[in-house]
Amino acid sequence: MSEDLLRYDLMIEAALRDVVRETIESVGREGLPGEHHFYITFLTKFPGVKVPDYLRKQYPDEMTIVLQYQFFGLKLEDDAIYVTLSFNNIKENLVVPIESITTFADPSVNFALQFQNSGDDGDDEGEDAPTPEGAEKPEEKRGEIISLDMFRKK
Predict the structure, then answer these.
(1) Distance between CA atoms of residues 138 and 4, nearest Å
(2) If you ran DSSP here, which 8-state letter would residue 142 be given?
(3) How far from chain centre, in Å, is Cα 54?
(4) Measured between alpha carbons, how far is 115 from 120 in angstroms, rounded to an integer?
(5) What's the predicted TM-score (pTM) here?
(6) Contact by Cβ (8 Å): 26, 38
(7) CATH no. of 8-121
(8) Residue pLDDT, tens place only, 40-54
C-alpha cells in the first residue's frame, strides 16, 4: 500500500470539525430547533480550554457538557465555543476550543462525531515520549471509512 501523502484523514477530520463550527454558529444565532440538543466532550487540559478550577479538578482529563435547556450566550469566536452553563445553580463561563473536542453528539437525530485529537492536550506524553522497556508502542491509527447510515434514523 502506498503512503498517503495527501493525508485524507486530516482533511476529513477538518471537514467534520467544520460541521461542529457551523452547528454552534447556527444555534448561537437562532437557538436550538425542535428536539435537538448536544453532548460535547472535550479535553480539559487542552490549551485554551477555560473551565472553573473546581470543575477542572473534578474532570482532570475530559469533560462532557450538555447543551439542551439551560445554556446562555452560546457563540463561536476565535475557533472556540463560548457558553455559560449552570453548575449547582451557579452560572459559569466556559471556553472550549473546537480542536479540544473529542466527541460531538446530537442524540435527538442519532448523530455523533468522534475525533482523533491531534493537538496538544497539555500532557508530556507525545509521539516522542519514550516507550517503557518491554512495552510495545501502539501503531498509529489513520483514516477509516465510516458509514454515516449507522447514525441516521430508520
Answers:
(1) 19
(2) -
(3) 21
(4) 14
(5) 0.71
(6) no
(7) 2.30.30.220
(8) 999 999 999 999 999
